[in-house]
Every structure is written in C-alpha cells, then in structure tokens.
C-alpha cells in the first residue's frame, strides 16, 4: 500500500513506534467515567473471582479448614491403640476413611462438634493403613488430607485357645471358653476385642477365671438349635505390656438336642433326660466314702473310647493305674470322669459306691460290647452335655474346674 491511509481508518503516526494502548490521560478519564456510572460504588471484594449463577461473585481463595492426621504421613512402628486421630481447625470434618491394604475399614467416631475423629477399635499389628480426611470451612470450601502409616511389629504375641471347635454341634451346657497363652494384665482391652452372639438372641456375659481364662455363657443353658458365633479380633490388642494378640478369626457352633443326666450318689442311679423326657435309667457307682464325687453341674469336655487313668496324676499316688479305661468322658480338669468300669463286679452298679471320685458304668474290657450301659451312654452323649451329681457327701465342684461355670450364680458371674 506504500504507506497510503486506509479509507475510514484513523491516521497512524509516520515516525516512531506504533501506539500499544490508551494514553495515561485517557485511562484516568475512563476511570472517572466508570466511577460515575457505578451507581454509588460497591464492596470491592465483590469484584474478585468468578461470577456465580446468580450474577454475583464468589471468593476463590483456598479453604481455611486445616486437616491434621496423627501419626504423620510415612510413620512406622505406630502403636495399635491410642495413636490414630484426625482433627480439623477452622472447619468441620465431613469425611474420614481409614483402610488397611486389604480394604478392611476401621470404624470411627466423629465428635459432636465435627472437629475430631478417633477409631472405635484397635488397629492390627504389622499393617499399613491409609487415611483420607476432608473438612469444610464456614463457606463450604473443602480441604483434604491423605496419609499412610504402618503399625508396629510385635516381638511378643499371645493367642487364645477356644472351646468348642468351629462348626461343631454341642450340648446345651457348652460355654465359650478361651485359654490364653500369656497371662492377661489388660483384661478390658482383650474382652472388648471378643464378641459372642447367639441366634436366636440371648444375653451372654463373660467371666474371667484368673488372668488366662475367659468364659462366656447365658444365664441358663442354651436353647437347642441355637447358633453361636465367636469373633476374635485380637490382632494388635496389647494384652500385657509389650505382648500383642495375633488372632483375627470367626468361629461358630450349633447347640444340638438337650441332654441332662442326673446322678444320685445316694441311690446310685442315673436318669438321662433328653429334650425334657426321660429316655434311660442306668445303675452307677460313684465315689467311695473316702474319695467322694463332687456335687454340681458338670459339662462333658472330652470323649475317649479308651484311655489310661493313673492315680498319680490326680493326687492318688500309686493306688491305681488302669491303661484301658473304656468309654471315658471328662467332667473336670482335676480328673473327674464318667466312664466304663470292667473291673468291678456286675452287682456293684446300683448298690455300692467304690470309685475314686468318678462315676462308673458297667462295661467290658476293650469297650467292644456296644450293648453295655457305658457304651450306650457314650454313644448317646456329645461334648457339652450336662451331668449333674447330687446327694454326694462332697462339696460342689468349683466353677473353673472344667467347663463348669454353671455352678456360679448369675449375679456373681456378671461381676
């Protein structure tokens, strides 16, 4: 165009740099004009940020809420109890999730003011946990925090050996009994990690015998057909200083028919009652006058087709050592059994008490004859069945001598 002006366009200076915008004077005039047209002026903060759907403008600054997770990100050897906590400053927590590497969530409790969260349970040992927490400030703006930490690896551990076995069917007298491999000095922490439930539901209470045994039972014998579930969440529980549980297990068992057999040491007869009906009367021999049988409710805890009984193991020295006692069922830890007896004359049963504290039933050596009273009772009994002894000139059996907590009053059991 050889510098010729474009028709209708403003003239451009022929020398110097091309102008890049309005002059300072023009800007000042423009500002005066805008101020004059502003309708009286407004809050200058309302001009920051982006317009909202209603035509106003919203603050675009970051959330004022601050989320803090303890322990800090990357921590190792974290305690399984008391260490995890999530808090919010200048805001309230809206989301807190804690999961291990298997995706198992940790349940927690949010404070009423929304400013803190803590777990409702202990954490597992030797585990990695991921925490995701979100808080909102007063304007609804979110702030998030994500951390990872690993719990301690215990040097010393304990487990609980449980009775009865998983998926077993047992009698109405069977309690849940746990024997721990280490003495427990933090019983509340251990007990809190164990849940026993029944279907249909029934109140179940626990009782400690010493510091290494914990039993659970209802007030009365279980109802036949009840399904009992035991959940052991002991992994990470500090049962005593520096000693941690390592079990995370669920077991269940079913209550079978009701069978309660009552031995009258005076008449030397045993009445077997199943589901409320007497099905058998069996002559027996109980403890001799110098070695009487305990009174009380006893639960069958073991069954042996044939076993050895040595008096030296239960405080009777060398008075007897019978290597082949048939059809033996344990009633106490101290050595009380109900068993077959082949060495006493047949006329003894129902007429005399001659045993060393056990309850004897007529049998044959080897237990091969399935028609003997001992064989019948053995074949028709299951673990958890109840044997009650009465009218013996002895004391009532101690509740912790075998699975015999039924001998403790309910009010005392719950203490």
UniProtKB/TrEMBL annotation:
Location of the region described as Disordered in the Swiss-Prot/TrEMBL record: 1-20, 40-65
Domain FHA: 273-343
One GO CC term on file: extracellular region
Pfam families: Big_10, YkuD
InterPro entries, A to Z: Big_10, FHA_dom, LD-transpeptidase, LD_TPept_cat_dom, Transpep_catalytic_dom
Bias kind Low complexity: ranges: 1-14
Keywords noted in UniProt: Acyltransferase, Cell membrane, Cell shape, Cell wall biogenesis/degradation, Lipoprotein, Membrane, Palmitate, Peptidoglycan synthesis, Signal, Transferase
Residue ranges constituting the L,D-TPase catalytic domain according to the UniProt record: 259-390
Gene3D superfamilies according to UniProt: 2.60.40.3710, 2.60.40.3780, L,D-transpeptidase catalytic domain-like
Catalytic residues in the record: 339 (proton donor/acceptor), 358 (nucleophile)
An example Gene Ontology biological process: cell wall organization
One GO MF term attached to the UniProt entry: peptidoglycan L,D-transpeptidase activity
Pathway where it operates: Glycan biosynthesis; Cell wall biogenesis; peptidoglycan biosynthesis
Name of the protein this chain belongs to: L,D-transpeptidase
Highest classification ranks of the organism: Bacteria, Bacillati, Actinomycetota, Actinomycetes, Kitasatosporales
